[in-house]
Write a structure and sequence with these properties.
Length: about 100
């Protein structure tokens, strides 16, 4: 059950990051990265295992990566501008730090 909850929380953090990162530049980007990083870190802290943090981080990354591709109606949620690139690049750094941090 913890595996499914970790995946669900990772998807939720990723979707919130995608929707918030471009809302209030640069505050939305900082808030989305900080919220996702702390949330993923708290998953490991609450359940005491790094594998749950890793699952949530993988789900976050897959959601953000998918949002960067064109959809069926040619919609693009993470654009190739400075804010979108910062979300992807600093998001990966944030994920590594959140997973590597001691719970």
């Amino acid at each position: 059950m913890k595996i499914f909850i970790s995946l669900f929380l990772g998807v939720t953090f990723g979707a919130c990051s995608v929707l918030l990162h471009n809302a209030f530049v640069p505050g939305g980007l900082l808030l989305s990265l900080l919220g996702s990083g702390v949330g993923i870190w708290l998953i490991g802290r609450g359940w005491g295992a790094r594998k749950y943090k890793l699952l949530a981080a993988l789900a976050w990354f897959l959601i953000v990566l998918r949002a960067g591709f064109l959809g069926v109606g040619n919609e693009l949620l993470v654009e190739g501008n400075a804010t979108g690139n910062a979300l992807v690049l600093s998001g990966v750094v944030m994920l590594v730090i959140a997973v590597a941090a001691k719970a």
